[in-house]
């Protein structure tokens, strides 16, 4: 976790100064776009090298109005159409929509090995927590890159529901007769039976017993796009995320649990625009 904080800090230090020199003469015809989509893989300080996946879509911030045209003086006939306005006034603003799937881990999770099989498991863990986050917000252009050079930088602020999926952390263990059983361990089970643990049960078995908890999510981030042309983009997104649930989520068997989780994140993404 400390290494990820260091990586995120270094990226901000190294990249942000470069963006101040990335404002080359802009060719609007090449860099103007109305829609953008991206698929990304996330690292975050919730834990784990791959902490989630995200799909993001941005759309130009404009509105439509009704245009009525006369078909000729004295004809009494008109033609109606829809027109879009706001492109000039809101040239640097976009609507942002994203769907994210994250694995949220407790800060005190630590993986150990089974005494009997050597298989890894998290000692003291009681539940897994996954978050499905439909996010809605605004995206502002901070720096626009020139054609085929520089860095395109956007700021994104989003909020939305956080659908928490809580699945029991099931462990395989040997009972008193030497048979392998599966169950969710309590704090006392970890203290008294840790030498009998063989490993974790299947992910499917755990998810079949999952429950759902509601909450609210937020995200604030900067995106750094390095696409070589106006049709394709690659880059990174870095910032902070948070999930607040309606009640405490018992990830660990101990009493050290919470209803709010926050983290720094780094997402590598690719996509396109038009």
Automatic annotation (TrEMBL):
Protein name, entry field: Outer membrane protein beta-barrel domain-containing protein
Secretion signal span: 1-22
Keywords annotated in UniProt: Signal
UniProt organism field: Flammeovirga pectinis
Source superkingdom: Bacteria
